[in-house]
Amino acid sequence: MFALTALMASCAPKETTLTLIETTDTHGRYDEFANDAHLIKQMKNELGNRLILVDNGDDMQGTPFQYCSNQDAEHPNLVSQVLNFFPYDVACVGNHDIEAGRKVFDRVYGETKVPVLAANVIDETTGEPYFTPYIVLEREGFKVAVLGLLTPYVVTWVPDRLRPGLRFEQLEAAAEKWVNLITDKEHPDLMVGLFHSGWEPQAQNLPEGHPLGRENATKWVAENIAGFDLIFYGHDHRARAEKVTNPNGEPVYVLNSGNRAQGIAKAEVKLKKGEKPQISVELVPTDGEEKDEAFLAMVQPYLDRSEAFQQREVAELPVSISSDEAFNGPCLWVDEIHRCQLETVEAEGIHADISMAAPLSGGKTIEAGMLKVKDFFTWYPFENSLAVMALTGKEVKDFLEYAYEMKSPIYNFDCAAGIRYEVTDKNPMGERINILSMADSTPFDMEKTYNVVMNSYRSMGGGNHLINGIGWAQEDIKNHVVWQSERDLRSLFIDWATKKGVLDKEPLNCWKIK
């Protein structure tokens, strides 16, 4: 018996090299993913079981054909088809996957043959993780543990109705809890984080000590929580491959492949029993790769169904419009959104005094002519819904002061309709906005409470206009909500334009820069 045990031990692999590949934040750009697919399949063929393929979420939003797939219950969802195609070994949930709504993401993940992770998304009924918290992959006699975590800031962007019964815990605390549990229970040879959370907080992130922690927490976790050897992350769309040091002075390698199928992130890991992993990391662009024909054939039916939907004619646009004109003053790109928002809520029996809206993408132009559904995906690329909030006149001013200060990125540059105001560009924040009157020339009152219509991202605290601008606590924002739409704003926008038939030639001219 002793001899047999010794023989088995002598035959066990003592070292191997594994390759781990990440894709992330594809945002439905699967028409552009065939290059990535070719390289991934090539590596699968060469490496076999020594390749581990991971995806870091935000796949269910971003293109018309992904939107169509989310609405189509007759065919398997495009995301589940892609995850199953290679197949991936593991995937993490992204905030835009949650934004698709529980009805959609439950169906999509139910169709996948791939473990889907997010340890800090809690089922309020059971108190346990709603998704699989982690998995252990056996490779060449070695154990690779993968822990999935999602930024809890999803609660500041996605209404409760799209995520009923789910609680989102702080990522930093969950990382420490689970890495210790996994280390003690599983004794992995390689500990991998799969985080849908960006590198580090930006200026617009909430302050230190907030109950949700950091929106972008990857760097902090890598440097402050021991146990991880390798962390793949996403969410901030910034490609990265580098090494940091944890509290024990040990190296932690961090990788982000970027976004929208621009390439893959690759880690080569040499494992040897009784020794720390040796890791090298790199970013691999895929632009020059061949396209995988089998992948294209799988995607094509989704493109065909989407094309028919996108080609439907909606309304006439009398003049060409550009999103970048918003920086210079009133422009039709934003003012038609204002008109849509104000008239849509009025049709629902809710009067809104003021509208807030921003151009959601920079550098976009729509030419004059007959608009089709596809143009509204350029004009309004996100699946936000519509909300009416109660703000005092002073809070309206503070909101606009913050919006003008935070005008980069462009989707944070809100302007208002329903009031007339001037912006003195040279003045500091707090002294730029001078509100002259309501749009009908009646007085504007700093003490009066107004109904203000805006998109759901903003009404949930997205961009921090309500938090850093006005000064509300995140947990108090919901107390100011007057009304929310059940349907997404783009669909409401299309319906509004269809009924209108011919859109406007002139902006509202509610404000100007002095």
Largest sheet: 6 strands, mixed
SSE class: alpha/beta
Low-confidence stretches: 1-10
Counted beta strands: 26
CATH class descriptor name of the largest domain = Alpha Beta
Q: Give the rounded overall mean pLDDT.
A: 94
CATH superfamily of the largest domain: Metallo-dependent phosphatases
Instruction: Report the oligomer.
Output: single chain
* Radius of gyration based on Cα positions: 25 Å
Which fold name is given in CATH as the topology of the largest domain? Purple Acid Phosphatase, chain A, domain 2
CATH architecture group name of the largest domain: 4-Layer Sandwich
How far is it from the N-terminal to the C-terminal residue, by CA? 90 Å
Helical residues, percent: 25-40%
Portion of residues in beta strands equals: 25-35%
Helical segment tally?
15
Which overall shape is indicated by the principal axes computed on the Cα atoms? globular
Strand order of the largest sheet: 4-3-2-1-13-14
